[in-house]
Amino acid sequence: MPDSGLPIKEPKVLIAGAGIAGLFMAILLDKAGIEYEIFERSGEVRHIGSAIGLGFNVMPVMEQLGLFEELKSISKPIEGTTIFKEDMETIREIRLRDNRALTGYDTLVTSRSQFYALLSSRVPAEKIHMNKEVVALTQNTESVTITCADGSTYSGDILIGADGAYSSVRRALHSQMNEEGVLSKTDEESELISHYMSVMGTTNPLNPRSYEGLDDKESHCDTVISEERGLTWRYFTIPDNRVCWRLDLQMKDMDPKLYEGWLNADYNTFDVNQLPEAWRTHKLPIMGELGDLFDNTPKETISKVVLEEKLFETWKHGRTVLIGDALDAILDAVVLANLVYEIPTAYPKYITKALDEFYLERFPTTKKELNASQQLSTVLAGKTWLDSAARYVLLKLVPRYFKEKSLEYALQYRPQALFLPIVESKGSIQNTPQRPSKKYTTYLKARGAAGDSLIR
């Protein structure tokens, strides 16, 4: 309950970004009964990108939101992944089948565009304002106001920056904090470091007779490490005999002339004819060559993205908070929505408390996950003798027991929306306990009392 004398005011939330992060946040807020609006910088939805893998961490909240069954219908389960050398010699097979017994869920893979369409179908079109790039923000004890590139302004109680790695909200927030002298030195003095670039796409339906296992129930998820320094390629087979593919380039190992002019701040369409012609003949473990995937992917949907390699320490200030992208965004959104739901009134001290708690829960976990991801990327794709040695130790020598123990926390962390009926734990490893919502408990009691009075 708010302090005595404070009026009860439900918060209004502004969301910058109508990607996966922004849409998922909107769905949660809608279920929580919290007013929101979304502001998207682009003028249209572009069906680009490759695969998105969704693991056990997010499945309980998918069930809560009524998305789980539809997600399964557009996905394939991943039971393992295989890493190959360019000559198709197997380096290691990694099995994920045990995750189902441990958590009750498969890891599912679908195309990014299909997952986006699923989320978009749950958000009313009138809630999304297109061509609204946030270029500035101001905030005080009363509200937060965004200014868009077209000069329009909008105000609310909380601003959520869900606009990607190169977030305009983050830049505006850091600029404001820098002027106030409260931005951390780490964030003030450094920029995003981009060592990796990916070119990616999703094919049209292919002939399953030409590609081994294409029509299998499970997804074939393979990675090939090239003999050429700094180059790997991977793919996931998905329903309707399609393939999501991706080339990863470690730019420090590439001839600068190859990627000069390719760098920018977002997913953008890309002409694969700019790639070296010889790359088209690289083999695929499911038969065929990379060139087959290029040729069977609509040209307008092939994209490239530069992958960030920095975790900013400043996530929140005043009434503004930032969340991550893709899978991280889903977990961020669940935790943040729970805290916003519990705000008794849209008064600064309650908003600050909620954003502080969000940061304390999510920052350490995100930092640990980013470090692990960077190390794994280096191990899988690195070409130095040290990378090869690390790959051998990790994939061949580390006992299964220690790998499973290191995954124990990740397997337990399956946060749910506290303002919806809780999904019971599945599998042999129980969910990490969550603090129950007092507000939701009060709501259920009131609804039960109202139901009893109607019966009488």
TrEMBL record:
Gene3D superfamilies with a match to the protein in the record: FAD/NAD(P)-binding domain
Native organism: Modicella reniformis
Listed name of the protein: FAD-binding domain-containing protein
Domain FAD-binding stretches: 12-181
GO molecular function, one term: FAD binding
Listed InterPro entries: FAD-bd, FAD/NAD-bd_sf, FAD_mOase_fung
Segments crossing the lipid bilayer: none
Superkingdom assignment: Eukaryota
Keyword flag Oxidoreductase: yes
Family the UniProt entry places it in: Belongs to the paxM FAD-dependent monooxygenase family.
Alphabetically ordered keywords of this record: FAD, Flavoprotein, Oxidoreductase
